[in-house]
Design brief:
Strand order of the largest sheet: 1-8-3-5-6
Strand content: 25-35%
Helix content: 10-25%
Distance between the termini: 16 Å
Largest sheet: 5 strands, antiparallel
Number of helices: 3
Amino acid sequence: MGVITAGMKSHRVELKFNIPARMDFVNITPEVVEAVRASGVKEGLCLVNAMHITASVFINDDEPGLHADYKKWLEALAPFDPSPQRYQHNRTGEDNADAHHKRQIMGREVVVAITGGKLDFGPWEQIFYGEFDGRRAKRVLIKIIGE
């Protein structure tokens, strides 16, 4: 069991987005790297999470073909359909039931170890914000704890 020492630090940053497309992916790795640097944490954890139920944060390769494949796959699993016939959620007056499903598949957050003051990634890993119901203001939380 770990013990919190007097050297424990905590750092919080919010990123703001207003993506013009209904669905898109944005590489936010540089912003997360900068938050880790600004935190001064050398050993710890970095949580990055979407603060909206129609957006996602995930880790994968920054390769355009893969991103196109994700979009096609997600649309096949949960197609956009604003009508209330396909999705009961849209009977509430919303038109974004598909976006809730896409977020559930892609996930809410990631946690990355910080080692030697840097994100401890595997090869090709990058952090992405996934938008599934764009055209409005949304946020991502970066929370860093450690020593």
